[in-house]
Amino acid sequence: MSFSLVNNLGSLESQSRLNVTGAKLNQAIQRLSSGLRINMSGDDAAGLAIANKFRSDITVLTQGVRNANDGISTLQVADGGLNTISSLLDRAATLAAQSASDTFSGNRDTLQAEFSKVISEITRQAQNIGLNAGGHNVKALTTVIGGGSDDFSAAGSNQGVVIDLTAGAVDAASLKLSTLSIGSSSGSVTGANAIGRLAAAETLTFKVANSSGSLSTYTVALAAGDNGTNVVQKINDAAAAGGYDIKASLDSTGKLVISSNSYFTSSSSVAASGTGTSTSISTAANDVVVSNAANHVTLALTASTGNQQLSFTTGANGTISTFNVDTVNGATVAAFVASFNADTTMNGLGIYAFADPVAGSVQFASKNSFQMVAGLEDDASATGIAQGPATITAGTGSGGASGAKAALDAIKAAVASLGVVQGIVGAGENRLQQAVDLATSQITNFQAAESRVRDADISVEASNMARLTVLQQAGVAALAQANQSSQAVLSLLR
């Protein structure tokens, strides 16, 4: 062993060890005071990255639970409204069933008054819950929940819980209830002549605006030699087989009377005969439009120099709906009628177009009161729509027992459509509740995983602190001894 007055190696070694012990003791005290094993990146860089991912997932899932609960509340509001609409449909069916009975002796118009208010209330309820046509809930509602599988940037990825209500509109027009009528029956056309026996085969063509909201065309074949009774039977049999609201009968003079609670056209393959006993049942101009209570407006189509537009306002929903008449340029009346009747918006309003007996004209009919305004879409100098008065208000049609029976069928279909929407809403409530249950479980598990990585083991750290405290005290004592060791050199100098 060598002695040196310049360097006290024992003291230096003791200081170095004491510094290491002090640093570790400080770390143990920091972990015990914070409760965390990782207080800075240097404590465990890889572990910190893992823990931060867990913590981010926990944050998203916690908000996702709130989102899901908000979604459940939204669907519960819609569910309550749908239940009310279901009750309104029950009342509408009750009124229709009462009017549909041939033994009913009361005033059907009184039933119609309440029936109309019930149908209007259905639309109001649907608007309140955002499930009317164009409503704020008529779309795919996505509720962001979070979790490891969600990827919100990639198309087609798992983007939360989606409740698809794009076809969830349940207002009267969407349920095809706006054209229904259960009031007093009206609307008929009488042939010009009494019917004898038909001299030749003849085909009748009917176009009917049904209560279900569609336009249907069907034919009735008549044979040579058919008399009035045969004709009536064939027309009524064909209407019954197809479910069309058309009735045929003979009046007291033997003339054919065709009536309906819906709007329809009737045309024949045989040209109109002269006066006297008819050998055919074709009508004047070979194309007759029949409507109720003058509930129609007529539009003349002429050459156009610009885009044109028709605006309709109905009592069904109180909103303005438009139809662009850009195809009028050079288009035939038949082409225009086909285009208009194929338009889903017009179908939903219960407004239909027919070829008018007046050449170049179109007739619009509906069982609901409506206003039609013809105007120019975007060119103030354009011409082409001739309508007469700027605004024409239609009257109100009615339906009688047969109309009420058609209403029962339409309400039955509406109940089925409403049930589909209720099923989507109910399933959505259940899915969101299940998502809450899963997210809550994930939050617990992620917190446990983060705790294992980030949190300090208190028992270990307390033991370390006790050990390091003793070690520090021992190091201080050793340093004191090391500092005293250099004095032994002086004894060699005596």
Describe this structure in words.
It contains eight helices and 17 strands. The longest helix has 56 residues, at 45-100. Strands 5-4-8-9 form a four-stranded antiparallel beta sheet, with helices on one face. Strands 13-14-10-16 form a four-stranded antiparallel beta sheet. α2 runs antiparallel to α3 (108-128) and α2 (45-100) runs antiparallel to α7. The protein has three domains: 49-180 and 401-445, f41 fragment of flagellin, N-terminal domain; 188-290, Immunoglobulin-like (Sandwich), CATH 2.60.40; 296-397, no CATH class. Mean pLDDT is 75; it is low at 273-296 and 377-398. β13 and β14 form a beta hairpin. The two termini are 20 Å apart. The protein has helices spanning 9-34, 45-100, 108-128, 228-242, 333-341, 344-349, 400-454, 458-485, and strands spanning 140-143, 161-164, 188-194, 202-209, 215-222, 247-250, 255-259, 264-268, 288-290, 296-301, 308-314, 320-324, 352-355, 361-365, 370-376, 385-386, 391-393. It is rod-shaped. It has 494 residues and is of the alpha+beta class.
Summarize the structure.
This protein is α+β, with helices and mostly antiparallel strands. Helix content is 44%, strand content 18%.
Task: Describe the protein's topology.
Blueprint: H1 9-34, H2 45-100, H3 108-128, E1 140-143, E2 161-164, E3 188-194, E4 202-209, E5 215-222, H4 228-242, E6 247-250, E7 255-259, E8 264-268, E9 288-290, E10 296-301, E11 308-314, E12 320-324, H5 333-341, H6 344-349, E13 352-355, E14 361-365, E15 370-376, E16 385-386, E17 391-393, H7 400-454, H8 458-485
Antiparallel strand pairs: 1-2, 3-7, 4-5, 4-8, 6-7, 8-9, 10-14, 10-16, 11-12, 11-15, 13-14, 15-17
